[in-house]
Amino acid sequence: MSKSPAKKNDDSTEQMSDKIAATVEAILFSTDTPITASKILQVAELSSKREVTGAIEALNARYEESGAAFRIETIAGGYRLQTLEAYHEVLSRLFKVKSESKLSQPAMETLSIVAYRQPVLRADIEAIRGVACGEVLRGLMDKLLIKIVGRAEVIGRPMLYGTTRRFLEVFGLASLNDLPRADELRQRPEKTQTPAPDQAGDEGDESDEPDESASDEAPDESEAETATD
Q1: How far is CA 162 from the centre of its chain?
Q2: For residue range 189-229, what is the model confidence (pLDDT) as tens digits?
């Protein structure tokens, strides 16, 4: 029995969707940097961004259903295949982090200030850290993590610093809005423990002893009621 025209159209549409998804997947597998929907649209010669987003949703659903160790994530305004965080520890044992990608403690502190306070002056960064930051700033610029984003409208017109798209890629952020809130980074104070009664000091022992003068002055409640009657 031949298929009805409606059934043939459904099969044709499904095959087309599968082909688009496979094409998008191939493009994402071929690059290790985020690629925008517009670029995917251009390379795959698709008609609308909806086809791109639909393909990505279908691929992620397929990955999740099959238990794949990766997903397509939105990073720095584009899409990139990312291994799930659950596999970070095992992968870190397989790959050594490139030495040039490591940041020193001063560099991390400076980069954090720029990320949260941008656009920010060098003088403001140094006021927060309490040390000169010229060399650190140059190092971060060499790594393409920060850049000069303008000049302040003050005397001398000093340069303003901000983060780059590379910063978002390195830290796996879709935008600066994904940065942790400052209150989430603060360490919560530990709860003070109250010593057990048997571990209390001399003051606690003295407080446990009955006060004879107080008992002499305070009448027993039953005696007070009898006197009242």
Answers
A1: 18
A2: 555 555 555 544 444 444 444 444 444 444 444 444 433 44
Is-contact 149 160, C-beta < 8 A?
A: yes
Helix 5-29, helix 37-44: angle, nearest 10: 120
Per the CB < 8 A criterion, the answer to whether 115 and 205 are in contact is: no
Helix 134-142 vs helix 122-129: angle between axes, to the nearest 10 degrees?
120
Radius of gyration over alpha carbons of the chain, in Å? 33
Domains of the chain: residue spans and CATH = 12-89 (1.10.10.10), 99-185 (1.10.10.10)
Comparing 205 with 163, the larger pLDDT belongs to 163
CB-count exposure of residue 95 (10 Å: 0-12, 13-18, 19+): exposed
pLDDT tens for each residue of 106-123: 999 999 999 999 999 999
Look at residues 64, 52, 65 and name the one whose alpha carbon lies nearest to residue 25. 52
Displacement of CA 174 from its chain's centroid (Å): 10
